[in-house]
Structures are given as C-alpha cells and as structure tokens.
Design a protein that fits this description.
With 702 residues, the protein is an alpha+beta fold. Helix content is 20%, strand content 41%.
C-alpha cells in the first residue's frame, strides 16, 4: 500500500521574503503609531520651530508663532492650534504682516490636502487681521506666494463649523488709489450652517475721496460650502450712494460675475471724479447698469436712468490700465436745455434757479457777461483718455428747435476733440468741429461751425418771426482760432471769420416794416393797419472779421425789394459789449422814412435796441421847427426819403465775401459798407497790414 504524498512546502527563500515584508509593515505601522502616540501625547508642540521654518521656506515669508502651538492627528483629523501667529508680508508691502491672529484653532481633513480642496471640519478664529495689497506695478499681491505675474485671486477653504470673532481686513490697490479698512461681523456656525446674514462694515479712501461701505452676505450657509454667495453692498462717497448686488462663485471672486449696480446723487461728475474722470456737471441723477469685471476692464451694460430732466441709456467701459480709458456709447431721447448748460461750463442748478448770467458769474465771469470763465481741468484731462459717441433725439427748448444731435468725443492725452458734432436745427443741419488742445500752453482752441440752409421762419419763431409765410433761409459758418484755458479766454484771443448768408426769400413778421428798419413807414402803416406783406429779400450777408477777440462788421448788407439795409460796428468777446448800428436806405420814395440808424448796444447778456436815435430826434426837431415857422406840410419834408439806395450785386453777398469785394448791381465798388474794422480803425488808426488783411476774401466758406 502506497502512502499519500504531502504538498510541497514553499521554498525557504520565499518564506523569508514574506516575513521580511510583514516585519517591515509591522515596523512601519508601529512607527506610525509611535509617532502618532508621541504627537498625541505631546500635542506636537515640539514641531513649532520646524513648522515655522518649513512654512516660511514654502511661502518665502517669515512665519512666527509666539504662543502655544499644536499639530497632531486627533485621531483622524489634523489638529492645528496656534496662538499669536504671524505671517509676514513681502518687503514692498506697506504693512509688516499679511496675517495675524490672537488664536487660530482648526481641524483639517487630511485627504482634502492631497486633493487640493482644503476642507476644515471646524475653525475657531479670534482677533484675526488680514492685510491684502497689490504692488505699485500691479504685478504681484501679498496673498500670492509664487512669482506668478498678476497674482492669484483669493481662495477660501470649505468650512463646516466656524466661530470667527474680531476679524478685520485691510485692502490696498495703488493703481486704483484705493484703501479700505473693513470689519467682519462675528460668525457662529454649526453643521455648515450660519443661519443669518454676515455683515461687513468699513471705510477708506479712493483717489483721496473718503467713503464708507456696508455689505451683507445673504446666503452664508452656501458660502461656507463654496456655493451661492448672495452679496448686497452699499457705499457712500462724495454725496453719492452706490448699490451693488449679485451672486458670487466665492466670497472674494467677482471677476466675470454680472453684478447689478445702482447709483444716485446730486451730481454725476462728483461720482466719476472719484476715479479721476472729469465730465460736465449734472443735476440730480439716478442710474442703473450691469457690471462685469474682467481683469483691468470694467464693463457697464444695459445702463439707463436720468440726469436732471433728461434721460440717458447705453454702455460704459472703464479700463484701468497704465492710463485710465473710458469708452462709452450713449443714447438720449430728450435732453432738457438746462441739462445741456454744463457743456459750455455752466452749473445747471444755477441756470435753472437764477439764469445764465448768474451761472456765468459763478464761474468767475465779470458782471453782465454770459461766456463762462471756468478753466478746463487741464491736469485731469491729461491723466485719462476717453471715446464717446452720443446720440440725442431732441432738445427741449422754448426758442431753439434743435434735434438729432450726434456727438463724437475723443480725449487723447489732453487733446479734446468734439468732431464731428452735428445736429438738426429748424430743418437745417449744423456740422461742427471743436478742439481744445491742452498739450499746448495755453490751450490751442479752434471752432469750425457750419450751418446748412435753414428756414428762418422756424429758426426765429421764438423771436417774433412767423413761420407761415416766411420762405427765406439762412446759411453760415463760424471759423475761429484762439488760445486759452476757458471758452471766454479762447474767444477773447480769437482770429477768424463769422458769416451768415440769406438767399432770396420772404420774411414775415407782425411788424414787417420795422424789420426793414424804415421807422417812418412803419409808423405810417401801423396806424393804417396795413402790416400784411412780408419783406422780400433779394440777398443778404451778415459778416464779421474777428481779430484778437474783436468782431467788426465786414459787411452787414441786406438787399430787399424796397431797401438796402446796412450795418456798422461790432462786438467784443473780451467784454461781451455790443455796438452795432443799422440803417435802411430806401430804393423808392418814402414819405415817412426816419433814415436814421437803429442801434443794438449793451452786452450779450442784456442787448438794448435803440430805435429813437439822436439822428431821428434831430430830424423830428427840424420838422417841428419847419411846421411852426412855415406850414404843417413843410414839417413832413424832414422825413422824406428820395429813394436813392444802390441795389446790391448778390454774387459777392452770396459768396460771403468781405466788404472790399461788394459791388452794386452796376458793378461799382460799394462805399457804404463797413471794412471789417472798428470805428477807430476806420478813422485811420489801422496800420497798412491790417487794412490789407481786412480786404482779403474769406475763401472756402461757401
């Protein structure tokens, strides 16, 4: 009988390797248990200095713990406690420490560290202080420990249970000139739930302007779980209130997140001045928009609201790069004329309450002046750039029928160009190019304003001209260049030409003959109730040559079927004084013609019509004397116009030519029009160069 064979025993070498592996595993486990036991018993306090050196080496910062320190597994969670802990800021920062805390006690999930998600089971933080700063070049921040350009956004761990007391945060951004000191309300949460809104309050300055802020996190339970963060914030600065609300992906992550913004205040220019942007003053405003921030770009879209009595809508993009740049597209349906006052330097509130003269005086203008004397904000204009396209449907005004304004603005390193600026006026169109170049000192300014043929009936409807029955039109151009940092200064030094041309047409007013300045005929027909015919204009020119801010008639010449109307004198942009005299020479016999000048004097703000002139009073005196010593019929002879006025050749008139180029219908030079000089110059005090210059034709206007 055979005996059964037994299984072959493992080779001695294999048994030895298995035992070695088992023994090593047991030894490692024993070592881990021993280490755990040592750490658990000692609470890992002996690791304080190695912890400081290790974390300091990884962050390239000095790390100090001046109080109790614990670091160990308890039992499967990492227990970390540090009292009077400090993490230093980089050398360029203005504060020595990025983080300080009287006490930080937390439990950390070990596996979360392996996966980079950082979960804290609970956190107890007492009297923490965080300092967040950007460097001047905006290439690094204090909370990014690597040399990565631009810095990383703030990133917070998930916290299940937290107690936070006495925490403050300081934020500084030199590029935005922003400094904020914030205090976080105490937080107590259990089971990843806080249960009530968390508030943040504080104050600070932005570009030298003080502000205060109050914010609330409406969904803090979602925040600690890295979910939805419903943020509501309100800030007060420079008489403005700004509200911001939105849902953030993390408590400090606003990049790419749509935020709803609302702003209100007494003057929108005060709000934008906070970020170093200058715009004309406004009245009370209310605006809302959606804000999305991407890096250095802040885009406000779906913007709408009101400023004063005007509406506004559109978009605004602010780029906070090496130079602040604004890019905006705006649409306004109705612009109130008072709200347009700031565009020429007036305060709209003063205009609305006390008028243009008071508004001009508020800018420093002398009494009786209306041109604003407010200087351009040179320094601010040279600090930022802007592009603006603005479309305005109509302007609400009693006297000026303006609509369809299309404005393009370009501000480039101190050179402000309103080009083109177009608008419709009384069924005519105005195109202009206005430039203020503050790169030159004082500023080099130019005005080029062109009026296409415009019906006078609608244009002058607010000044007594009847639209029905008026077929006359007017076109013109103002081309001036000057130097100065205000509108008044630039016009006070201006040189150039002003010319308005009237082609053939009819002009209808209730006082028709007064429009022709034939005072005698006007009085006669007024009593006969025969003011029923319009003025028949053959052609007309109102032209001025401007030198050093003084505008002299060159010429004023209007040819009608019955009269030739002539004007002399001028006005001054320096003092805003007006001294013009008009007279009508009849082409036909007129029994009651005063044949005397009608003067316009005073100032831009308060012109005066002088109808009863010295010449007219003299004729009345002569007539009265003749009536006394002779017969009443003889007294009428003092007012007889024999009708010898010379009709004007309309070619030079319609070409906008200077006085020297004007001719009669027979081709002879006219000797009854001004020469574009002041009265003193016409009396022989103008030098030869000026007399030659005044006779040059202003080419290229028409």
């Amino acid at each position: 009988m055979e005996t059964p064979t037994t299984a072959a025993a493992p080779p001695p070498r294999r048994r030895s390797a298995w035992r070695i592996a088992r023994n090593v595993a047991l030894a490692l486990l024993g070592l881990i248990v021993a280490i755990w036991l040592v750490l658990y018993i000692t609470k890992g306090r002996f690791l304080k200095h190695p912890f400081e050196r290790f974390v300091g080496g990884q962050t390239h910062r000095v790390v100090r713990v001046d109080g109790d320190f614990q670091l160990y597994f308890a039992p499967f969670r990492i227990k970390f406690l540090a009292e009077r802990m400090r993490i230093a800021n980089p050398d360029w920062a203005t504060r020595p420490y990025l983080f300080q805390a009287e006490r930080i006690d937390t439990r950390i999930a070990p596996l979360s560290l392996l996966w980079g998600k950082r979960r804290l089971y609970w956190l107890d933080l007492a009297n923490g202080a965080v300092d967040l700063e950007w460097n001047a070049a905006h290439t690094a921040n204090t909370w990014t420990f690597s040399d990565k350009k631009g810095g990383k956004p703030l990133d917070f761990p998930r916290i299940d249970t937290a107690t936070v007391r006495g925490t403050t945060v300081r934020y500084r951004d030199p590029r935005m000139q922003l400094l904020a000191d914030l205090k976080v309300d105490d937080i107590r949460s259990t089971d990843a739930r806080i249960g009530k809104a968390v508030g943040v309050t504080g104050d600070g300055t932005i570009r030298g302007t003080p502000f205060r802020v109050a914010a609330r996190l409406l969904a803090p339970d979602a925040t600690v779980n890295r979910g939805r963060n419903e943020l509501v914030l309100r800030a007060w600065a420079a008489h403005n209130v700004v509200d911001v609300s939105g849902t953030l992906p993390s408590i400090a992550g606003i990049e790419g997140v749509p935020l709803q913004t609302r702003a209100r205040g007494r003057n929108l220019s005060e709000l934008l001045a906070i970020i170093g942007v200058v715009i004309p003053n406004t009245r009370d405003y209310r605006l809302k928009a959606q804000l999305v921030q991407q890096g250095q770009v802040y885009r406000f879209t779906r913007m709408s609201g009101t400023a004063g009595e005007s509406d506004v809508a559109g978009t605004l993009t602010i780029t906070n790069g090496d130079r602040l740049h604004l890019d905006s597209q705006l649409v306004t349906k109705t612009l109130d004329i008072v709200d347009a006052a700031p565009f020429i330097g007036y305060n709209p509130d003063i205009v609305a309450a006390r008028g243009a003269v008071a508004a001009a005086a508020a800018t420093g203008a002398a009494p009786q002046r209306i041109l604003p004397d407010a200087a351009l904000p040179i320094a601010t204009m040279q600090r930022f750039d802007a592009d603006l396209k603005w479309r305005i449907g109509r302007v609400r005004s009693r006297n000026l029928p303006i609509s369809d304004i299309d404005l393009t603005l370009d501000l480039d390193r101190g050179r402000l160009a309103l080009s083109p600026l177009t608008f419709a006026m009384a069924r005519g169109n105005v195109a202009s190019d206005v430039i203020f170049d503050t790169r030159q000192r004082p500023a080099a300014d130019s005005y080029d304003i062109r009026l296409s043929p415009t019906p006078m009936g609608r244009l002058l409807a607010g000044y007594g001209v009847a639209e029905a029955g008026t077929t006359g039109t007017i076109k013109g151009r103002i081309k001036l260049e000057g130097r100065g940092d205000s509108i008044h200064d630039s016009l006070s030094s201006a040189h150039g030409r002003i010319a308005f041309v009237m082609p053939q047409g009819q002009l209808w007013t209730r006082n028709v003959q007064l429009a022709e300045l034939d005072i005698g005929t006007f009085v006669q027909k007024m009593f006969e109730d025969k003011l029923k015919k319009p003025v028949e204009i053959n052609c007309g020119l109102i032209g001025f040559t401007v030198r050093n801010g003084i505008a002299a008639a060159d010429p004023i010449l209007i040819d009608t079927t019955k009269n030739v109307i002539l004007g002399r004198g001028g006005f001054s942009f320096k003092t805003e004084a007006v001294d013009l005299a008009f007279r009508a020479d009849g082409k036909k016999f007129s029994l009651f013609s005063g044949q005397s000048p009608v003067g316009i004097q005073g100032y831009f703000a308060a012109p005066k019509l002088d109808v009863i002139s010295d010449q007219l009073l003299g004729r009345a005196g002569v007539g009265l004397g003749l009536a006394v010593v002779a017969t009443p019929v003889a007294g009428v002879l003092a007012f007889v116009d024999v009708g010898d006025a010379k009709s004007a050749a309309c070619g030079p008139v319609l070409a906008g030519a200077t006085a020297a180029a004007q001719r009669t219908t027979k081709g002879k030079p006219r000797d009854d029009v001004g020469r574009g000089t002041t009265a003193k110059e016409e009396n022989g005090k103008a030098d030869a160069g000026e007399k030659k210059e005044q006779r040059k034709k202003f080419l290229g206007i028409f």
